[in-house]
Amino acid sequence: MRFGVRKTAHVLERIGLAMAGAACGLFVGAHVGSAIPSLTTQGFLLLMMLLGAVGFYLGIDTPQLPFDAAHSQIDAAEILSSAGTLCATLASLASVAVIVLRLDPHDAATWLVFAGWIGGVSMQIVAGTKARMRE
Questions:
Q1: How far apart are CA 34 and CA 110, in angstroms?
Q2: Per-residue 3-state assignment (H helix, E strand, C coil) for the chain
Q3: Helices 76-100 & 2-35 angle (0-180, nearest 10)
Q4: Widest CA span in the chain
Q5: What is the pLDDT of residues 78-131, one digit of tens each?
């Protein structure tokens, strides 16, 4: 009984993280899509939301290596996950600030936000996949 409750709680937590990632992706997509005319499509918004959902689902709460002498190497998945989460959420925060404060950033800043988002969720996806594939 207790195992089922813990498993259900974990699944609900992961679904919530995926929804938070999708929301972050929506903000980044809205900001970048409104500033770069070729990216002003519904497909682009859906892609940003999908990347966010997958990245936050896989990349946050990754299984960690145990802390003992046999596993003294650096956990690449943990580093990638934390760096990816930081990059993705910074990009999302910048996008929300631009949208809410009605700022008009330079095109280079918009491309930097876009690169930060893509890089961040990519790191999360790779980290989550790597952590789940190891023995």
A1: 10
A2: CHHHHHHHHHHHHHHHHHHHHHHHHHHHHHHHHHHCHHHCCHHHHHHHHHHHHHHHHHHCCCCCCCCCHHHCCCCHHHHHHHHHHHHHHHHHHHHHHHHHCCCCCCHHHHHHHHHHHHHHHHHHHHHHHHHHHCC
A3: 50
A4: 55
A5: 899 999 999 999 999 999 999 999 999 999 999 999 999 999 999 999 999 988
Positive or negative, the CA dihedral 21, 23, 29, 32 is negative
Q: Are 110 and 31 in contact (CB under 8 A)?
A: yes
The model's pTM: 0.88
